[in-house]
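Tip: read the tokens left to right.
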């Protein structure tokens, strides 16, 4: 568990410098000499697998750069005050009782394109007072470790950054493909703080980005709805399992989300999810039909172990007929995928409400089979300026 105070807004993100190539022409179609692959090497752009249509206005319709550094070579991009407890009790891959908590970067800060490395620095590391320890005692020997997810890593596939000493920057190298992408609404980087023993302790940390890599030309912005107003985002069978309250408190795990390949980005007006209830697998008792909900994370909400709700949105059914549930998901541009994404960072799952009486408010384990269909509708964004 973690007690967390995030301080946001002390440093505003600069407007990007976007310099178009003078030879480009805004045709509204990705040209033969324009690549559908991200220019930093991370792979094919999802939107261009659906359509080669692009916006037709201004520099957004041409190859262009996105420079968020504002002429600086170092940017403070994250900071937090934290308090860690030895929970979850049996975390996967860690000693029993390891204190764990995940931290993201506050919007609008990103690991900007052009970042060479990050400096992750712990400050003010102190044991929490207990019956056997004096209050406020500095203890330089707390074994602190940092794991991290980059913008290209799969959820849960953390990389080890190593052991950190208070007051000394822990250097995390950043490859071009690992940086956040232009027009992301929220950084996809996630930092996991752990200890090598069961401790209660408080700390402060800062994250500084250091520039040192190239900033490249990106293709024109994809226009997802230029040819149609409706897009199929996902359709398929889903199997979900939950270990009960032990899932997070004991193991520190949280799984069974649907991660669509197709992005939900600028121009999207509605997202409708239809669920066909299949079979309840227990072992907990089956809840009443009205005790199910859709849990959603958009691209700006990252679930974190020991730090906040695993779901950013809890959506009740707009309609329910027999075993068919229809959900209307709230859409906010602050939660959109980058238009250049290789796949969506939204996630969805159909699950019993935490308050479901039959499951003792989430204490009972369960499994569930169902089918899910996600449909997005929207409009062309030609003539609209995207947020930085």
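Filled-in amino acids:
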């Amino acid at each position: 568990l973690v007690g967390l105070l995030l301080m946001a807004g002390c440093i505003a993100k600069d407007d990007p410098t976007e310099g178009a190539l003078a030879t480009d022409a805004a045709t509204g179609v990705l040209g033969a000499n324009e690549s559908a692959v991200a220019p930093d090497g991370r792979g094919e752009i999802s939107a261009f697998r659906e359509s080669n249509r692009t916006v037709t206005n201004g520099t957004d319709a041409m190859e262009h750069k996105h420079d968020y550094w504002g002429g600086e070579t170092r940017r403070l991009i994250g900071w937090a005050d934290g308090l860690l407890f030895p929970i979850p009790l049996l975390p996967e891959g860690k000693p029993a009782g390891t204190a764990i908590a995940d931290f993201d970067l506050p919007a609008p800060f990103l690991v900007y394109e052009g970042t060479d490395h990050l400096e992750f620095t712990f400050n003010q590391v102190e044991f929490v007072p207990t019956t056997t320890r004096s209050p406020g005692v500095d203890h330089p020997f707390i074994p602190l470790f940092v794991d991290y997810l980059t913008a290209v890593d799969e959820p849960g596939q953390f990389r080890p950054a190593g052991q950190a000493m208070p007051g000394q920057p822990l250097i995390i190298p950043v490859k071009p493909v690992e940086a956040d992408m232009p027009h992301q609404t929220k950084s996809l980087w996630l930092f996991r703080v752990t200890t090598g023993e069961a401790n209660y302790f408080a700390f402060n940390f800062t994250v500084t980005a250091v520039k040192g890599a190239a900033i490249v030309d990106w293709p024109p912005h994809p226009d997802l709805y230029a040819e149609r107003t409706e897009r199929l985002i996902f359709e398929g069978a889903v199997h979900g399992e939950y270990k009960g309250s032990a899932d997070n408190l004991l193991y520190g795990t949280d799984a069974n989300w649907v991660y669509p390949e197709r992005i939900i980005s600028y121009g999207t007006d509605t997202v409708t999810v239809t669920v066909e209830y299949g079979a309840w697998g227990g072992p907990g008792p089956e809840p009443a039909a009205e005790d199910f909900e859709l849990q959603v994370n958009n691209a700006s909400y990252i679930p974190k172990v020991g730090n906040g709700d695993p779901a950013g949105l809890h959506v009740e059914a707009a309609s329910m007929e027999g075993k068919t549930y229809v959900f209307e998901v709230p859409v906010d541009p602050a939660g959109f995928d980058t238009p250049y994404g290789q796949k969506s960072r939204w996630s969805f799952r159909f699950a019993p409400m935490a308050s479901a009486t039959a499951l003792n408010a989430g204490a009972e384990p369960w499994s569930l089979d169902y089918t899910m269909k996600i449909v997005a509708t929207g409009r062309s964004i030609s003539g609209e300026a995207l947020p930085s």
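Helices lie at 46-50, 246-249. The longest helix spans residues 46-50.
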